[in-house]
Amino acid sequence: MDLDAITEYSALHPKPSGLILQYGTAGFRTKAEHLDHVMFRMGLLAVLRSKQTKSTIGVMVTASHNPEEDNGVKLVDPLGEMLAPSWEEHATCLANAEEQDMPRVLMDISVKAAVNLQQDAFIVIGRDTRPTSEKLSQSVIDGVTVLEGQFHDYGLVTTPQLHYMVYCRNTSGQYGEATLEGYYQKLSKAFMELTKQTLCSQDEYRSLKVDCANGIGALKLKEMEHYVSQGLSVQLFNDGTKGKLNHLCGADFVKSHQKPPQGMEMKSNERCCSFDGDADRIVYHYLDVDGHFHLIDGDKIATLISSFLKELLLEIGESLNIGVVQTAYANGSSTRYLEEVMKVPVYCTKTGVKHLHHKAQEFDIGVYFEANGHGTVLFSKAAETKIRQLTKELEDEKRKAAAKMLENVIDLFNQAAGDAISDMLVIEAILTLKDLTIQQWDALYMDLPNRQLKVKVADRQVISTTDAERQVVTPPGLQEAINDLVKKYKLSRAFVRPSGTEDIVRVYAEADSQENADSLARAVSLAVFQLAGGVGETP
Ligand code: 16G
Ligand code: MG
User: Fold this and answer.
1) Could you tell me the CA-to-CA distances from 11 to 6, 43, 221 in Å, in that order?
2) Which residues form a coiled coil (predicted)?
3) 0.90 surpassed by pTM
4) Measured by CB atoms within 10 angstroms of the end CB, which terminus of the chain is less buried, N or C?
């Protein structure tokens, strides 16, 4: 390592002294103007991680659904996964080292992690459409270059597309070709093959309105449109030509406000969906004939997908196990429906994709979705091999067709990460194949009314939780208070957790009516405020 060169270049990306940031649930995320030094240092760190794993590592510059003024960065591990926990710590240390200490901290990391500095390094870089992203990704490149890493800059891509590139490059092309063309080809081929098996071809099923959150999803859907145009016509809204990124639109807005996005013309019973700012989340929605808004969130997406997969598994008659992974935010009705009606085992993990992803890897087929619309389906290597073998060997026509469909589903899901584009194509294919309208899908079960609130406290870390965030451990007395409040309502449930992305505590409540869910959420917020050091206005 040329420490002099590092010091010299680092001075061009100086750290504002005293600024402390943490590599959180989805990497570093804050106001864009505070991130230049973090980007440079993540370029350095990516090179060390690449040398250590002897693999290509990804660096994505995005702040997902955050406001346009924010930005962020996360590293993508060799199989398209989120960065390993021990390296999250290294990332935090490196980002927070004061200017003069930085080269030493970098050396320490390489010693601790036993990095062979002679090894080659290769980094792939991507960015979203934020006005600050281009310059910040240039700072990542500066970091990579100063440590003599090789790189490829994919420029504007969705977060899942960058995960896909990393996965392809580390599996010598077996998963797909590491280009945008390769991504579009792979997904569209699987989509067209899957849907061509259907007899129904009513046109109205094949058109979909997409709210792109004024983000990267719009650009990439435009590029992809013609690959799938024979099977699906998408109409794009909030494509970034007028509105502000994530402002009053996008998956996060629609889910948290339970309202239609602005800037989208919705007629009654039309199928609509919303992406978030970096296109790794998707939720569906529609207006009914009375003009009421209906949200179809990640839980209902997981239900649709797992019931489809379960039917196909029954058809081919193989004992491959399937499991659904959710978080505490999953609507109680969805969990009940999956367990009691569909007889599928359901597991709960902490919030954050890496936790769900990890759990889902325990099954032959692991379906994971957060209620906010982030998710995918993972097939174990053994399950994939078995299915591909069956499509070749089976003689029974019906069983063979089912195995073929499963094979298309494997190719259609982005198994490296939750992906709005890939999820959208899977959902559209299932709705077409099963001849389901959006209302019929919505009617699978009725969501319990729920409410999410935020509470400001002096230090959100005073709240610690257990049991996949469903129970509070500290501060003392808070869980008891929540228990007492929950007892006052029917079909009720509530939990609180410190946010991993904002300086607040999140409160979730559900109950038999919206009024009760609201009132429970308010009462729990007050308990948090009183017992966990609330600041500002009393909720
Ligand atoms: C991040 C996570 C998302 C999680 C959310 C929770 C990834 C890629 N994204 O966006 O999975 O639901 O944070 O935010 O892991 P919160 O901690 O502020 O509630
Ligand atoms: Mg996102």
Assistant:
1) 9, 15, 40
2) 380-407
3) yes
4) N
